[in-house]
Amino acid sequence: MSLRDATIDRERRDLVSHQVMDESRLIRFVAGPEGQVVPDLGRKLPGRGLWVEATRAAVDQAVRKNGFSRAAKTPLSAPADLSDMVERLLARRCLDQLGLARREGVLISGFESPPRRSVQARPPGWSRRPTDRPTGAESCWPWPPTRPPASAARSARTI
Questions:
Q1: Is the separation of the CB atoms in 106 and 123 below 8 Å?
Q2: 157 pLDDT more than 90
Q3: How distant, in Å, are the alpha carbons of 83, 110, 114 from that of 118?
Q4: What is the pLDDT of residue 128?
Q5: Domain spans of the chain?
Q6: CB 37 within 8 A of CB 29
Q7: Structure pTM?
Q8: Which residues contact 142 (CB under 8 A, 6 or more apart)?
Q9: In contact, 71 and 15? CB cutoff 8 Å
């Protein structure tokens, strides 16, 4: 069993609802050095973890009802905009992961026509296509490569 397999099955108790959940559904917080609540999205900061369900309502309720202090059994201060901070950190983490995937060659995005040879030889794990592309546009290629149906190339007036 690998380390990744061991962490997938771990369960923690949500400090707001008191339900036992899988770690993937929770956000870890720790007590900072000055007694403030710090989100630990990487789950690597030292200290006892305070686990909250990964929803805005749960984080707001933990801040409102002083759940972090009760769970840590020590006075902690949580900023009122903690859920906004967590949202910004999650968005940043997601963009960082997409950047890593793009540099590794397993993500393709944008209007690239035709695909690079490396992509043709080894299909990517992710492919992002723009949703606002014109119907039947040859400059935008879908993945896996297919030709659009003949009806897609017609305009709405001709149909």
A1: no
A2: no
A3: 41, 16, 11
A4: 56
A5: 3-102, 105-159
A6: yes
A7: 0.65
A8: 129, 148
A9: yes
